[in-house]
Amino acid sequence: MSAKNFHVRQAAVSALRAWAKGHDYAESLVERHAQRRMLSPSDRGLLQAILFGVLRHRRILDHWITKLRQGKLDAETRDVLRVGLCQILILNIPDHAAVNETVEAGKAPVRPLINAVLRKAITTRKQLMEEVDDMPPALLHSHPDWLYNRWRKSFGIEKTIAIIEWNNKPAETFFRLNPLSPTDAEIPGETLGHAPDYFRLEGKLPTQLLAGGNIYIQDPATRHCIDLLAPQPGEKILDACAAPGGKAFLIAAALGGGNGLTCTDSNEKRLPRLEQNLSRLRIETDEISVHDWRKPAPERFHEAFDAILLDVPCSNTGVIRRRVDVRWRLQASDIQDLTKIQTEILQNALPCLKPGGRIVYSTCSVEDSENAGLITAFAKDNGLKVGKTIQIKPNEHGTDGAFAAVLKR
Fold first, then answer.
1. Is 352 an active-site residue?
2. Catalytic choice (225, 241, 314, 364)
3. Do residues 274 and 242 touch, judged by C-beta distance below 8 A?
């Protein structure tokens, strides 16, 4: 048995245990555990495939565990079984590697049990797969019942199934060229006709282009709110919820540089990453500072901006394919709480507009209560005009989900 491959399975189990305790998000756990065990790029990729696979298919994996093993299981043994069954039934990793190396990731007293369950999964694989067609959609595609039922009421059964199927597909990687730092190097990707300057990554991540600030990893859905904001050179622009800097980059690109751009974020701990990203992309802003927009704006911001981007905290229901653990973290009550925060941010940003200015409100949600419903009500209550709105459905547009709307005085 290869020691490094054992460490991949062990890392996957450790990451799942940390995730279950709420220590971090899945993306961060991959990087942390890969570095801790000094995994090669290929083994890091395997770790991510297993961890993301378990989180994407967690509900159906637990269903299979119940069919294969009667009785109680401790949390760690269940995670080991999830890792093993994901390899056998989802990722189609060779059976001997999936079984032998996953068994070794378990504690010695339960290794015989893990071995028995995984080998039973192999011998009954055909039967397990034949039963898939009769499963309820929320179980088959591993979404919480409350979320499936919510979308079914909003979108209908057919569109909801299309969304949850999309959410379980591995996310593609896209990047955008940086017009502020052009390069003659070969671009390792396929151009997107509907999104100028965006590419679908082909092959390995171009680390030199990333480090040099020539490209930025970014989904094409990001551009819609900036298209509505329409920054013009000479304008004063506020990106109020700016970290980690992807949309600030697009604003600066439209402005021809960072002159005129002010960036804030509510979390001071996120500012260093924002500053590093913008610096790498050759962007010098007018200001980067901390401010929680649930509170009134600083006096110096009043009537200071021609345009304001509010990329507000949201449910992330449009990016579940990319953020694989959102479906398990989110609760129905969270969406209601978020709409209160979103309205507060809008209310506190409004005094910062110059006369005749514009606000673009943006989310990565597909929930009407966070998007068109909220904007319509806010505009009515504050005497504003709603301009163009855009709602991107991920399964229909082939990108992340997004919403954006223009508000004008």
1. no
2. 364
3. yes
